[in-house]
Q: What sequence folds into this?
């Protein structure tokens, strides 16, 4: 199942080293199943890169629309964290979270790794320019060696910036905001790493008007879909 819906929520962060094992257990056994049980969430992907000094962990959730990420059902969960969430969330560090309108996609299937590229609008550019050129860019990026899927999103910080109880649990986010997110799924992390210079060159030469690429390549650590959750409920 490819990234589905017209929006996605992307997260990057670190975890205090003593809590890393518990974070992964919590995320697999409680947190992601909780999120995928919320109406409108379609898929969740947990990402990991053990070798980077910052943003070792990432998560991408697909949503039917961007409004899913400030829906009443979602905010209810965010404002009523579980006991386990109350324990794990304060161990987050360098937290980034942004909801995006998915404005273009290319490719089918799933990759075993994902490159996340955060971008700023170039001088004089904006959302309209991205919307106009995004599909052409996605189609070209898909042709780069190692790529099997591409998704381009426009950041909607007014959606993901809502303050909640979970926001209070995590240390404050001091990172600079960004405007565009490109997600590239691929055969594996080494293959995507080798193609990062070409990905960045293609983006720089495109017509969408963006700059300052911040790229990290991750392995896919865990994936869950709303269909998986429906199957679990049906088995009970």
A:
């Amino acid at each position: 199942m490819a990234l589905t819906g017209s929006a996605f929520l992307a997260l990057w962060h670190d975890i205090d080293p003593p809590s890393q094992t518990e974070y992964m257990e919590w995320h697999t056994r409680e947190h992601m199943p909780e999120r995928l049980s919320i109406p409108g969430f379609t898929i969740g992907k947990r990402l990991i890169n053990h070798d980077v000094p910052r943003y070792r962990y990432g998560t991408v959730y697909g949503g039917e629309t961007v409004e899913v990420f400030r829906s009443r059902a979602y905010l209810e969960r965010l404002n009523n964290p579980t006991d386990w969430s109350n324990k794990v969330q304060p161990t987050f560090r360098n937290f980034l979270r942004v909801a995006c309108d998915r404005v273009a996609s290319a490719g089918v299937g799933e990759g075993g790794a994902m490159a996340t590229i955060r971008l700023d609008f170039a001088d004089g550019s904006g959302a309209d320019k991205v919307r106009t050129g995004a599909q052409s860019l996605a189609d070209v990026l898909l042709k780069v060696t190692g790529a099997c899927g591409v998704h381009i999103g426009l950041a909607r910080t007014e959606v993901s910036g809502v303050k909640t109880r979970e926001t209070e649990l995590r240390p404050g986010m001091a990172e600079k905001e960004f405007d565009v997110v490109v997600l590239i799924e691929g055969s594996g992390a080494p293959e995507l790493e080798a193609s990062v210079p070409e990905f960045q060159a293609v983006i720089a030469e495109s017509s969408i008007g963006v700059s300052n690429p911040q790229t990290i390549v991750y392995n896919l650590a865990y994936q869950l879909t709303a269909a998986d959750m429906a199957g679990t409920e049906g088995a009970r």
Q: What stands out?
A: The longest helix spans residues 20-36. The helical segments are 20-36, 72-78, 83-88, 127-142, 157-160, 165-169, 189-205, 226-235. Residues 5 and 64 are 4 Å apart (CA to CA). The mean pLDDT is 93.
